[in-house]
From TrEMBL:
Name used for this protein in its record: Cytochrome c oxidase subunit 2
Organism per entry: Reticulitermes lucifugus
Lineage: Eukaryota, Metazoa, Ecdysozoa, Arthropoda, Hexapoda
Function according to Swiss-Prot or TrEMBL: Component of the cytochrome c oxidase, the last enzyme in the mitochondrial electron transport chain which drives oxidative phosphorylation. The respiratory chain contains 3 multisubunit complexes succinate dehydrogenase (complex II, CII), ubiquinol-cytochrome c oxidoreductase (cytochrome b-c1 complex, complex III, CIII) and cytochrome c oxidase (complex IV, CIV), that cooperate to transfer electrons derived from NADH and succinate to molecular oxygen, creating an electrochemical gradient over the inner membrane that drives transmembrane transport and the ATP synthase.
Residue intervals of the Cytochrome oxidase subunit II copper A binding domain: 92-225
Pfam families according to UniProt: COX2, COX2_TM
Length: 228
């Protein structure tokens, strides 16, 4: 999760988010090189009082500054398109989770199990403990096995919502009457936090999402305990 004075992205908890962070740094380095070059040229023009008649009209330099941006855009577009296709791909999911947005809480259904569903509300501030995070912890956490491809199906019961976990690189709109799906894989155990990122009403900022990533054995024991 994000921390105080954090100026960078959250640590990636999935392969897709790690690739998004790499792409972000890759693009920033290209931007840094462009900004450095342009600032150098502007500074030189401001402080240099000499004029070169060969620079007043030159087809070579005009061709260069037309082709160079096109090449730079290719270096940005190729990894971007690769990531877009990877984010839309569903890789043989081991289980399916359905999230339904309400005003203002989330409902979850484990489609592969019988009658395994629950509502998830934010823990009120007066009930917060020392180990809980204000406005981020919920009374019922989503328990998911790590290192397992998860298919997420998202919809809404009333208005537009958006199911978002920044550290997983997942942001899927919840639209009434429509099913949107995405997939993710959590590559380490822990607790991941997110919130609805669509302005859905007065309590929009009070419908958090909490995922508890556990081992496969722990997940099986959790499912068994709920089925008893």
């Amino acid at each position: 999760m994000t921390t105080w004075l954090n100026m960078s992205l959250q640590d990636g908890a999935s392969p897709i988010m790690e690739q998004l962070i790499f792409f972000h740094d890759h693009t920033l380095m290209i931007m840094l090189m462009i900004i450095t070059t342009v600032m150098y040229m502007m500074t030189t023009l401001l402080w240099n009082k000499h004029t070169s008649r060969f620079m007043l009209e030159g087809q070579l330099i005009e061709t260069t500054w037309t082709i160079a941006p096109a090449i730079i855009l290719v270096f940005i577009a190729m990894p971007s398109l690769r990531l877009l296709y990877l984010m839309d791909e569903i890789h043989n999911p081991t289980m399916t989770l359905k999230a339904v947005g309400h005003q203002w809480y989330w409902s979850y259904e484990y489609s592969d199990f019988t009658k395994l569903e629950f509502d998830s509300y934010m823990i009120p501030q007066e009930e917060n403990q020392a180990s809980t995070f204000r406005l981020l912890d919920t009374d019922n956490r989503i328990v998911l096995p790590m290192n397992s491809p998860i298919r997420l199906v998202v919809t809404a019961a009333d208005v537009l919502h958006s199911w978002t976990i920044p550290s997983l690189g997942v942001k899927t709109d919840a639209t009434p009457g429509r099913l949107n799906q995405t997939s993710f894989l959590i590559n380490h155990p822990g607790i991941l936090y997110g919130q609805c990122s669509e302005i859905c009403g007065a309590n929009h900022s009070f419908m958090p999402i909490t995922i508890e990533s556990v081992s496969a054995n722990h997940f099986i024991n959790w499912v068994s305990s709920l089925s008893e």
